[in-house]
Amino acid sequence: EQLKSSAELARLRSQLEPHFLLNTLNAIAGLVNENPKEARRLIACLGDLLRDALHDGDELQPIEDEVAWLRRYAEILESRHAGMLSFEWDIEAGARRTLVPRLLLQPLVENAVKHGALRRTKKQDGCGVVSIRVKLDPAAPRKKVICTIEDNGPGLPDAEPRQGAFGIRSVRRRLALKFPDAVLRMESSASGTRSIVELPTPTPKELS
Q1: Are 28 and 75 in contact (CB under 8 A)?
Q2: SS3 sequence of the chain
Q3: How many CB atoms are closer than 10 A to CB 76?
Q4: 106-114 and 166-178 helices, crossing angle to 10°
Q5: Mean pLDDT confidence for 44-68
Q6: How many CA atoms lie within 13 A of 135 on its CB side?
């Protein structure tokens, strides 16, 4: 059973990485004619991302490494959508060494950008904003880290958003395989959508 779980985790990661790569290349392609110098800079940035994403290391990594990776990813998107998209970061210092599955949050950030922040209506002033917040909840019976990805898009108030999207499915499945006690909640309203991952700190068994 452990071998089966490890194989499925590897398969989910292999599906995620090409999915991310195609979307990011499409973002950079839009800059090739408009701003070749910026396109070259972002291709170098993408190379750094891929080096880390394809690193054949542990399935788990500290949240500070996950956030550092996401910041480079956000840099590409902010450049591609200049004036239309920005990111906000609030990472609690005490949570930075907590271990999370590698690239766990990337699909949630991508969804927040594509289906939220960049779909603001004419009635909504200002640019699209994606906020990434990470904090510890020491009061829980088992200490856990709470990761929140929030956008200020139009929202989907009548249903849980994007239930069938690959990114959401992959996050749910990876959590189920590695951390059965973890929770992924989706909240949406007319003012935006919020993805919340509640992840207990890993036990020795989960680290194996």
Answers
A1: no
A2: CHHHHHHHHHHHHHHHHHHHHHHHHHHHHCCCCCCHHHHHHHHHHHHHHHHHHCCCCCCEEEHHHHHHHHHHHHHHHHHHCCCCEEEEEEECHHHCCCEEECCCCHHHHHHHHHCCHHHCCCCCCCCEEEEEEEEEECCCCCCEEEEEEEECCCCCCCCCCCCCCHHHHHHHHHHHHHCCCCEEEEEEECCEEEEEEEEECCCHHHHC
A3: 19
A4: 160
A5: 78
A6: 10
Tokens of 66: 């996950």
Query: Average pLDDT, whole number, for the chain?
Result: 81
Tell whether the model's pLDDT for residue 70 goes beyond 60.
yes
Q: For residues 130 and 95, give the distance between their C-alpha atoms in angstroms, rounded to a whole number.
A: 20
Global pTM value: 0.80
CB 61 within 8 A of CB 99: yes
118 Cβ contact partners less than 8 Å away, ≥ 6 residues apart: 81, 84, 85, 128, 153
Q: How many residues does the chain have?
A: 208
Contact 136, 94 (CB under 8 A): yes
Per-residue tokens: 45: 């940035």
% the chain with pLDDT above 90: 33
